[in-house]
Design a protein that fits this description.
Layout lengths: L4 H4 L5 H32 L6 H4 L9
């Protein structure tokens, strides 16, 4: 709301201000969401590149 407060003083009205400021905040939110999705996508698809640490299952516990 810090960025939108000066815009509220303009004669546009609160609805137009909300639309303008909402559009301004949408880009960083979408950028972060897409970066996260694309970063996790190889793991979700099982494409780990043979990096043994992630691809290997847990070892069987030793019997005592």
């Amino acid at each position: 709301m810090d960025m939108g407060e000066p815009a509220l003083r303009r004669p546009q009205g609160p609805r137009a201000t909300a639309v303008l400021e909402g559009g301004r905040r949408l880009r960083p939110i979408l950028t972060t969401a897409l970066a996260t999705i694309f970063a996790v996508l190889p793991l979700a698809l099982g494409i780990t590149g043979g990096g043994g640490f992630i691809a290997e299952p847990w070892p069987e516990p030793a019997s005592v």
